[in-house]
Amino acid sequence: MSENPVPEGKFMVNPYLDWAKGEGVPVHEDFGLNLAALEVARWDRFDADGCIAHLKGRGDFMTVFVIEIPPGGKTAPVRHLYEEAVYVLSGHGSTRVESATGESHTFEWGPDSVFAPPLNTSYQHFNGSGSEPARLALTCNLPAVLNLFHSESFVFDNPCTFPEREGGATHFQGEGDFIPVRPGKHMWETNFVPDATDLKLEKWAARGAGGSHIQLILADGVLHAHISEMPVGTYKKAHRHGPDVHVFIIGGEGYSLFWHEGDAEFLRIDWSRGWVFTPGDMMFHQHFNGGAERVRYLAVGHGSVRYPFTENMWRIYQGIDRDVKQGGNQIEYEDQDPRIHRVFTDELAKSGIAPKMDDFNVRTEA
């Protein structure tokens, strides 16, 4: 007889993972994934092809669904009690959202659009091309919601409405409201960003090397989202935060380094547009523009600057650009491992690109 027999009935249940397995679509798992290349299969729930992407640093709250709509096709109408942010990987089409009052909002999207259906509104995606598929990445907090209620019908068939989440009609038309706070915390509130590659960003000197940034408040949700940019020949300062933050590359190419405090070696992921990765819990990470074009990325996680959700996220936001020596979560250039800059300059030399880090007091010697 086993010393630790498994009890009869329910024991150590993860309702979300059980749900994902039961959906019958491919489930991909890695530290980083090229979403544009993932295998998809028929997903009855959405009446389209799709897959689930489980990033190893996704934590307890978040996951990513990839939906591929065939040429001239459409998804099934859905509504749900989890929040999501949609990033368009490829294709052109439109989405129709039915408001709590029965009003219909339709907007057209293309590559690099970002949008969020307000909580528990009914919505449907349409592929506007008769010859090319459209592929969407849906980053959502279904794991948290389903594990909390462990009731599929409560999540997907709930009649409750949240009209206060919908915003005005212009928020479905690509317009928004700029809410100034301070560098690194300025917000753009909307439901729809037509093209994330040209959304106006604000300078954030504390994060390093001429970078810029904007926080997105999508459909007044609890999900965090921001867009950041790195100029050619530069890289960000290393920083850390909790898990769940999914980083989508929306322009340019380069690489990121990852390590936990005390690690002797770095984990490296090379990326280009279409890739997503998630740093692990309080894992230092640093992003490098390794190409001849600016780099932009979209980050989506759980707990926004409006609704941090947890005390931990509140503390992270307070110290994301504060030196670790002062109790923050950022490593200044002068304190970074000297190997970091040498790797960067060697990488740029392969492509004949000049680094532009001379004005930032970078540590280059041990």
Task: Walk me through this protein's architecture.
By secondary structure, the chain is mainly β. It has two domains: 15-165, Jelly Rolls (Sandwich), CATH 2.60.120; 170-360, Jelly Rolls, CATH 2.60.120. It is built from five helices and 25 strands. Strands 2, 12, 13, 15, 16, 17, 19, 22 and 24 form a nine-stranded mixed sheet that branches. Strands 1, 3, 4, 5, 6, 9, 11 and 14 form an eight-stranded mixed sheet that branches. The N and C termini lie far apart (58 Å). The mean pLDDT is 94.
The CATH level-2 architecture of the largest domain is identified as Sandwich
CATH class of the largest domain: Mainly Beta
Provide the CATH topology of the largest domain: Jelly Rolls
Largest β sheet strand count, sense and barrel closure? 9 strands, mixed
End-to-end separation: 58 Å
> Helix coverage percent of residues?
10-25%
Taken together, the total number of domains comes to 2
Outline, from the CA principal axes?
Answer: globular
Low-confidence stretches: none
Question: Counting H and I runs of at least 4 residues, what is the number of helices?
Answer: 5
String of helices and strands: HEEEEEEEEEEEHHEEEEEEEEEEEEEHEH
Oligomer: single chain
CATH superfamily of the largest domain: Jelly Rolls
- Proportion of residues in extended strands: 25-35%
- Helix-and-strand structural type: mainly beta
The count of DSSP E runs of length 2 or more, i.e. the number of strands, is 25
Cα-atom radius of gyration: 21 Å
Mean pLDDT: 94
